[in-house]
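Private note to self, pasted from the team thread so I don't lose it. Backbone tokens:
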């Protein structure tokens, strides 16, 4: 596949790389030479203002990929093939139902262009999901880019009957499920500084929470398991299947309002990290404090490396707290190669409207980076804290996102916390629906009990 454009920009190359890899497994070849384009023996996409012959797929370009700088874009959404689209242009007549610039529209969503523009912050200082085009136009719950790509493939096949993706499935790699876990609070009662335990116990007494006070004593006396200690349960859940889960550990040097894990100097957390590093892929969960003091990202990454004696190259931001482009630049500078933060910490859905990994494009520097982003679309904490869902509603929500991703052969990434999968009364019913969900989506039956 070759793409012709009268002007070749970094933005155009980036999006041709992404779409090419998703459709045919390799970046599209891009040229600004007419003769090379017209004599190319394979499929040809003309992405310019000038039509050449009837033997090419003509895609009239929007100006976004040829601009410099960042400025508000006039976006009017419309429906085509039953889905929302924008950047309406006149395309190839044979490409019925494809009257928009998929290159520019995909770039707008993937680059998170709107997050570079002035916007309202949420209560945690993050980009508020209410600002997003996907939320406003009602497609946040869909991997719209992947749906567009499937339609694009069909249009190309209409134009070029011999066109093949050269892949065993419609788009990209086979459907994949990656369960991921954030370890924000390794234990509820155990292994904490004496003053934290004593202070919490006094609060229980003053508030009349006798059951909680009694449970705390039993856990500390090793008469009951810690309510957040769900690690063996999760291991047993994984064992019958071919999962490759990812774990992200919060390891701040000191505790804070939003950084409540036991400290990494504690032997218990070191043992927990080592145990998981021996069996699974682990990463750093940059603390809330690192958002204010970015030097802490390197320190926290080094802390896990020292404990696990392995190189750490993956991360996910605690509270999904990140700002573009600064946070991702700090991650790259710290040696992070993969980040799993692309989603919202306030609502479930597809923040970048995509269900496959992609390289982050630094819009201010106008360059493709080597930071590979893995977008998630479901986090149980969103269902519980933000959306106020019951366990039954959360199960239906998980099913929806799983099915949407599976339809486009994408990668379904969920986030769960050990706290929800333990025995804490506050999260009663949540371990059970996760157990049920895993049983439904796996080819083998789950052999552990939910209790």
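Design output:
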């Amino acid at each position: 596949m070759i793409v012709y454009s009268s002007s070749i920009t970094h933005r155009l190359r980036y999006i041709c790389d992404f779409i090419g890899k998703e459709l045919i497994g390799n970046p599209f070849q891009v040229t600004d030479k007419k003769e090379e384009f017209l004599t190319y023996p394979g499929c040809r996409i003309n992405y310019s203002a000038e039509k050449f012959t009837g033997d090419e797929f003509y895609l009239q370009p929007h100006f976004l990929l040829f601009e410099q700088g960042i400025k508000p874009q006039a976006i009017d959404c419309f429906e085509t093939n039953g889905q929302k689209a924008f950047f309406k242009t006149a395309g190839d007549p044979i490409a019925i139902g494809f009257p928009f610039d998929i290159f520019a529209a995909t770039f707008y969503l993937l680059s998170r262009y709107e997050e570079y523009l002035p916007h309202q912050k949420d209560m945690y200082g993050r980009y508020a999901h209410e600002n997003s085009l996907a939320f406003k136009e009602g497609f946040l719950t869909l991997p719209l880019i992947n749906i567009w790509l499937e339609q694009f493939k069909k249009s190309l096949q209409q134009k070029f009957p011999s066109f093949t993706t050269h892949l065993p499935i419609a788009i990209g790699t086979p459907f994949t499920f990656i369960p991921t876990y954030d370890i924000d609070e390794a234990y509820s009662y155990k292994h904490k500084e004496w003053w934290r335990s004593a202070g919490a116990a006094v609060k229980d007494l003053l508030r009349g929470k006798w059951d909680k006070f009694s449970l705390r004593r039993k856990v500390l006396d090793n008469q009951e398991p810690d309510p957040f200690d769900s690690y063996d349960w999760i291991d047993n859940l994984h064992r019958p299947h071919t999962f490759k889960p990812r774990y992200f550990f919060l390891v701040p040097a000191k505790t804070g309002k939003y950084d409540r894990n036991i400290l990494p100097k504690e032997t218990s957390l070191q043992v927990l990290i080592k145990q998981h590093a021996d069996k699974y892929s682990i990463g750093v969960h940059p603390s809330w404090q690192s958002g204010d003091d970015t030097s802490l990202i390197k320190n926290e990454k080094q802390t896990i490396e020292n404990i696990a004696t392995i190189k750490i190259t993956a991360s996910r931001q605690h509270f999904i707290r990140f700002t573009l482009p600064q946070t991702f630049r700090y991650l790259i500078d710290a040696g992070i190669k993969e980040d799993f933060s692309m989603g919202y910490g306030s609502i479930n859905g597809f923040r970048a409207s995509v269900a496959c990994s992609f390289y982050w494009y630094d819009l201010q520097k106008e360059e493709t980076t080597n930071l590979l982003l893995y977008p998630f679309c479901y986090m149980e904490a969103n269902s519980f804290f933000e959306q106020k869902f019951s366990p039954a509603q959360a199960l239906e929500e998980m099913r929806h996102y799983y099915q949407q991703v599976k339809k486009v052969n994408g990668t379904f990434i969920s986030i769960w916390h050990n706290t929800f999968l333990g025995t804490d009364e506050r999260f009663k019913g949540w371990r059970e629906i996760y157990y049920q969900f895993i049983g439904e989506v796996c080819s083998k039956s789950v052999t552990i009990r939910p209790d």
